[in-house]
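Q: Convert this sequence to structure tokens.
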Amino acid sequence: MKVLLVEDNIDLAQNIKGYLDKEGYVVESVGTYETAIKKLAGFDYDVVLLDIMLPDGNGLEILQYLKRHTPDTGVLISSAKNALDDRIQGLELGADDYLSKPFHLSELNARIKAIYRRRQLSGANEMTLNEISINTDTLDVRVNDNLLDLTRKEYELLLFFIVNKNRVLTKQSIAEHLWGDYMDSMDSFDFVYQHIKNLRKKITAAGGRDYIQTMYGSGYKFNTNT
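A:
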């Protein structure tokens, strides 16, 4: 899962990013309104963790920007305990959830997962596509009831493909989703091909169909229509 953290408190941002990194998220962190807007204008995220009070602007304006341009992005706002009006306004503007500071990182993680399930998986923690089943709580993937031995990146790649099934995904978009926005400057995405090759091999070895279609000159498609 790809997350944008908008938080101007450097120590808190580092703690949140370090925790979420260990949980397997791809996290980009910014501390100002201006840099947040630049990130959102150039890249896609599954969930945005949004501080309301920023040194150069209001986080609620970022929320409004998201709702205009990428309404499918999940938003979790954070605010001080006494900022009830801001939290109410944020929810009215379309935020998915809020947390009052200070909060436990384990609760933050649970809230992020819940938002992702509601946004991308219709609220379920298990999803099934033909012979493939995925449990997003345990990270187990089964093909014909055979448990696959996937790396975390292979798991995230498969989930990304299934959520975007039958859509062409460029190598760049796959790389950015799995490794972060700095991949935008890479000249070669050969490592993407290697991960796709490994994932395809594991699925087919368990008796699954080869859903991953190479779209020459464009990228890849998880094609469920064949």
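The mean pLDDT is 90.
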